[in-house]
Amino acid sequence: MTQLGQAEFAQRRRQLMDAMEPGSIALVPGAVMQRRNRDIDYAFRQDSDLLYLCGFDEPDAVLVLVPERSQGEVIMFCRDRDARAEQWDGGICGPERVAERYGVDDGFPIADLDDILPGLLEGRRRIYLTMGEYPVFDQRLLSYVASIRSREAGGAIPPGEFVSLKHLLHEQRLIKSEAEIAIMREAADISAQAHIRAMQNCQAGTTEAQLEAELIYQFMHSGARHSAYPSIVGSGANACILHYTDNDSTLQNGELVLIDAGCEYQHYAADITRTFPVSGEFSPTQRVLYDIVLAANQAAIAQCQPGAPFNAPHEAAIATMVEGLLELGLLQGSATDNIRSETYLQFCPHKSCHWLGLDVHDVGDYRLAGEWRPLQPGMVLTVEPGIYIPADVTVSDNQQSSKIRGFALEDALGTGIRIEDDVLITETGCEVLSQRVPKTIDEIEVLMRAA
Ligand code: GLY
Ligand code: MN
Ligand code: MN
User: Which of 245, 259, 382, 417 has most ligand 1 atoms within 8 Å of its beta carbon, as the pocket-test mutant?
Assistant: First the structure.
């Protein structure tokens, strides 16, 4: 159950229904169980659109919104109660209790969808649905529409338009309410504690999986039952694999370890990355590289303010990292040319920002009418610049000569550094939700020394 009250969900549904065309209907299918292996399922995760609109957390549900329907606008189809199933797998809400528990107007058994939904569709001009998410449901819907069409001569009125629900609903999800922000602060705080715990328990001989265990311990201990995504714990050159999740190497002194991990708290995600030395002390070369990525992270966060285009933080991060890579001799020529020709992609291959919310890569358009959209208060995005120097990078004679003292290219090969924060846009600028995790070299070394 979520800490969000029924009033919040009712307000979200009202907002969506007010934005829908008159005479329309919206269909929001929920997630289904996924088999992992014989007799075992993956942990259930509800569809985020359905969660957003009602908080209902069981498989096999469909939420239907029918604005201005006199017998009730909000209808939930869900599993019937079943004593045997509940004995094995836990409680089922059931259609008779769903109205009281979730504030919807009416509940029906999901088994009756074929009988009831065609009647709700008939006479509605427009159907809103995010197509392609649940192909089995899409097929069923098309068969309902076909059956209404087959009765057209007898007076049945089939829906004429299918419109993606995404445009209305995902724009709404993009701007977080005060209640959502409070939950996301908590998600970031719990994840911050987990990163700190991992730094404190890091030493040579520890495995990456053991550090992952520290993260999961802290998530669960602090009330977050799940990780928002598989934790990335990459030591040494493993940090150059962007979505590395094998987590099966043993940490060695002299290496850095990159942890990209966040919990899911009350269904909202945190997404934080820190990179720190296994020994607790950065080498001279690591310090130089780390400070470039840190400066990029800070330059990007400085761009996180209302009115700035979505891409401004990324552009600031790239400009900072290109300057740094030029000074190191890893890039040659002018900053402008390198940015224009994207030569930096060999060391900085990914974008620096994405929306964050119920989904780690949350919904909402990044561009409006072809232009990067302006940031607005209530949006939450990540800021995550990174530099990765592959172990097998081809190095020209030119590149051997760094202008920065203490930096040695041979020591940098196989180094990956990413620093990722979660940032809320406010009326006056931004709030870094993940600020409790140490980020500067001094902060990290002090914490690890004290452990
Ligand atoms: N953890 C995935 C990402 O940073 O986008
Ligand atoms: Mn991440
Ligand atoms: Mn991210």
Answer: 382
One DSSP character per residue, 349-376 reads -S-S--B-SSSSS--S-SEETTEEPBP-
Which domains, and CATH codes, for the chain? 6-172 (3.40.350.10), 175-450 (3.90.230.10)
Ligand 3 centroid to 35 CA: how many Å?
27
Q: For 182-217, how does the pLDDT look when each residue is reduced to its tens digit (9 = 90+)?
A: 999 999 999 999 999 999 999 999 999 999 999 999
Query: If you ran DSSP here, which 8-state letter would residue 207 be given?
Result: B
Q: How far apart are CA 322 and CA 330, in angstroms?
A: 9
Q: How confident is the model over 70-90, as pLDDT tens digits?
A: 999 999 999 999 999 999 999
- The Å distance, Cα 430 to ligand 3 centre, comes to 17
Tell me the C-alpha distance between 421 and 277, whole Å. 19
- With tokens 């040319």, the residue in question is 337
- Counting ligand 1 atoms within 8 A of each CB, the residue from 195, 366, 420, 421 with the most, and so the one to mutate, is 420
Quick check: helix, strand or coil at residue 54? Answer: helix
**Full-model pTM:** 0.96
Asked if 327 contacts 402 with a C-beta cutoff of 8 angstroms, the reply is yes
The set of protein residues with a Cβ atom below 6 angstroms from ligand 1 is 229, 260, 271, 354, 360, 384, 420
Does position 398 have pLDDT exceeding 60, yes or no?
no
CA 155 to chain centre: 46
Beta-strand ranges (E) seen in 298-394 are 367-368, 371-372, 380-383, 386-389
What are the catalytic residues? 39, 243, 260, 271, 350, 354, 361, 384, 388, 418, 420
The pair of structure tokens assigned to 76 is: 């939930």
Report how far ligand 3's centroid is from the alpha carbon of 145 (Å): 40
pLDDT at 36: 97
25-29, 113-117, 158-162, 368-372: segment of lowest average pLDDT:
158-162
